[in-house]
Description:
- The structure holds two protein chains of two kinds.
- By secondary structure, chain A is mainly α.
- Chain A has one domain.
- Chain A is built from three helices and two strands; from the N terminus they run ααβαβ.
- In chain A, strands 1-2 form a two-stranded antiparallel sheet.
- Helices cover 31% and strands 25% of the residues of chain B.
- Chain B folds into three domains: 1-27 and 35-239, Rossmann fold (3-Layer(aba) Sandwich), CATH 3.40.50.980; 251-456, Rossmann fold, CATH 3.40.50; 459-578, GMP Synthetase, Chain A, domain 3.
- The model of chain B is unreliable at 1-6, 179-183 and 572-579 (pLDDT under 50).
- In chain B, the strands form seven sheets. Chain B has a nine-stranded mixed sheet, sandwiched between helices. In chain B, strands 18, 19, 21, 22 and 23 form a five-stranded antiparallel sheet that branches.
- Chain B is an alpha/beta fold.
- In chain B, helix 14 (468-476) packs across helix 15 and helix 16 crosses helix 17 (568-578).
- In chain B, a hairpin with a 4-residue loop joins strand 26 and strand 27.
Amino acid sequence: xxxxxxxxxxxxxxxxxxxxxxxxxxxxxxxxxxxxxxxxxxxxxxxxxxxxxxxxxxxxxxxxxxxxxxxxxxxxxxxxxxx
Amino acid sequence: xxxxxxxxxxxxxxxxxxxxxxxxxxxxxxxxxxxxxxxxxxxxxxxxxxxxxxxxxxxxxxxxxxxxxxxxxxxxxxxxxxxxxxxxxxxxxxxxxxxxxxxxxxxxxxxxxxxxxxxxxxxxxxxxxxxxxxxxxxxxxxxxxxxxxxxxxxxxxxxxxxxxxxxxxxxxxxxxxxxxxxxxxxxxxxxxxxxxxxxxxxxxxxxxxxxxxxxxxxxxxxxxxxxxxxxxxxxxxxxxxxxxxxxxxxxxxxxxxxxxxxxxxxxxxxxxxxxxxxxxxxxxxxxxxxxxxxxxxxxxxxxxxxxxxxxxxxxxxxxxxxxxxxxxxxxxxxxxxxxxxxxxxxxxxxxxxxxxxxxxxxxxxxxxxxxxxxxxxxxxxxxxxxxxxxxxxxxxxxxxxxxxxxxxxxxxxxxxxxxxxxxxxxxxxxxxxxxxxxxxxxxxxxxxxxxxxxxxxxxxxxxxxxxxxxxxxxxxxxxxxxxxxxxxxxxxxxxxxxxxxxxxxxxxxxxxxxxxxxxxxxxxxxxxxxxxxxxxxxxxxxxxxxxxxxxxxxxxxxxxxxxxxxxxxxxxxxxxxxx
Lengths: 83, 579
């Protein structure tokens, strides 16, 4: 697992605040109701910070953010290097 | 009321498309600002050409005068040219909110199904990326065609279109009233009404097509985005720089960047944006920007909060924001847009008054007092009536009230809507003898309109009239509470036969909840000191608990529902109220 994935997982665990919950890169989050759509703005900003990319929000749909692996793949696919 | 449709600089046009046709072809019209290094600009001539291509495609799909055309596309030049293209045929376009990752899917789907069924459109235009799981919720009758924007690219060249026959009194488009999803009642507007509104607004703001430039992140399905930032620039030939609402919410600093780079002169914003931008832009980057080009940034919220305006002014005075640039307006989709506009020549900005708090709450009466008087309440004006607009202030019993008395604001104007599309039931309830009942409470004083809040949000506690926004502002002033993340509401108390005030507020950091008893006590004291009444219960919640609307604003009714679900003890009382 990459350092970015690890940091993203830690961030999400803090965000969800469910005692004893463990997630990995492939745990469904949005579709499983663990995070709601409003939290996705926060996750997208975190993803920008971790990947040093700028991610156009218009190119992101909830299904692209369902797992940590998908989030990182989305950043690679639509992200642009920060100036 | 006079409707002079022949002599005004705007109302001389027969319709909105004539106004677009008269624009100088080489002047830039829309710049779509995608991000720091991607943007696209079209001139008025290019915009007209692209709109004609869209019109031809719609014509080929059987669209003719009067047909509804629903456009569900991301904020873009294509969405705007499709809208104008539909109007070129005399058809009636309507923008609906595009689904995005922030909008709750189930709510969006039900809104979409309801609105598309009500409009009975000939064509629904969506883009290539429109999610398939939402498509099933677009109500497609036998006569309705679904058009992907990719199919709607026609051949190049000048297209022959049928000439519009005197359509000034025909419907121009349908705009939807604001809401969490943007999918609500369809407000039907004629070309003549829209032109008259723009005439009045352009005069009040002294709009100059060759000198002005509008900045907007506002959604096109909302009146601020559609009228102030698309129709007004189109009719007055003003360039507009547009970004997506989502991009702005994520990166509010881009507003400063765009105004600086594009030298924008005008923008409209809801109240919360005046706090959101300075708070979300690191102060050490403010100096990179220059707001000296701005001549009017207009707060269109009800109510206008002077504290929010002051925060923006204090933050950005050092980077060229002149005093008197921050202005206010009272606007609604049902009146096309603005009813009032503050005087842009007034260097101190919108008028403010201070009134005795006790008389205001118990008698709904404004007794002016000096600034700084203990327990005084302050109000910021939404401006003066535009020409062609009249208002009345009425009591619950329908009695007309004199200046200084608080009541419901009724509006009559030469730009008033003709009704909610296909909803005569709703129309009859809201337009009575030509007066539109806004559901907003306010008062007039010295020729200025002061808007206080929504009538339905008013809390009546022990005979005192309280406004949730006033309580929320006090609670949010506590250092432990997150800015803007407070909702105050009334919950019926069957023992007392009156409403109790319940407050839910997010703390800045979760650790602060360890000291919730202390914080709650301090908030109780603040509210009592500020407005003299006690809050029954304060619910402190971790960050991100309060439900937000698309634009990042706390959503009152959705938060209430969530609170009632989590706290069944409140729910029981609500049920008692209904039974």
